[in-house]
Amino acid sequence: MFIKDYISKDYPAFNWSDSIEEACEFAKEFGYSHVFIKKQGVFAGALSQSFLEESPEGTLGSLEIHFERFAILEDGSILDTVKLFHIFNANVVPVIGLTEKYLGYISCDDIFNEFSKYPLFSEPGAILTIQTTSKHYSFTEIARIVESNNAKIYGCYVSAINEDNFWLTLKISSENLTSIDETFERYGYHVVHKHYNDEKEDLLKDRFGFFQKYLEF
Questions:
Q1: What is the pTM (predicted TM-score) of this model?
Q2: Is 27 left (phi over 0), alpha (psi -120 to 50) or beta?
Q3: Average of pLDDT values for 108-117?
Q4: Residue 214 pLDDT
Q5: How many CA within 13 A on the CB side of residue 161?
Q6: How high does pLDDT run on average in the chain?
Q7: Would you state the torsion angle of the CA atoms of residues 106, 109, 111, 113, taken in this order, to the nearest 10 degrees?
Q8: What Å distances lie between residue 109 and 11, 26, 186, CA to CA?
Q9: pLDDT of residue 197
């Protein structure tokens, strides 16, 4: 999961003296949100393709006050890039070394392709979001509830948090889902969202449907 294993090098950083028009056309061709600028081999910043389209003719260096300073070190983790994609509304992030030399980039596609290999995304299963108080939160207990019902956790993450509550989203194998639901509720966890067919709910819906048809006769 280290950045250095995923660096692409076919999208160069532009020089300070390169033209705005050239950089903008290059970004369009690649379909990337930003171009990167270097000065004397050192990464200087980034400019969005949309901003370049609205800029007057000139050199990239003339836009220095508008440079966005975001990058990731080559020894970072790919998880660190997700926040940068969000903050800067970017689909590409520059990778630099300890001396701030531009080394290449990592794109959203690189991240999605890597994440798609993880069991959290690749394995079939059910998704549950449970809510509990901050004081009651215990991942040990949550894992025990799932595993005591002969199911497995493929992955999980904290989907929301505030001063009083935790919301935890779990990807689990599909065995004994109704029992897992009931066990969570019994231990004080509230199942707020789920993506799977609840057999008990389906049975109740079917019975209610039959009852409605009976009343119509």
A1: 0.73
A2: alpha
A3: 85
A4: 42
A5: 6
A6: 86
A7: -130
A8: 14, 18, 42
A9: 56
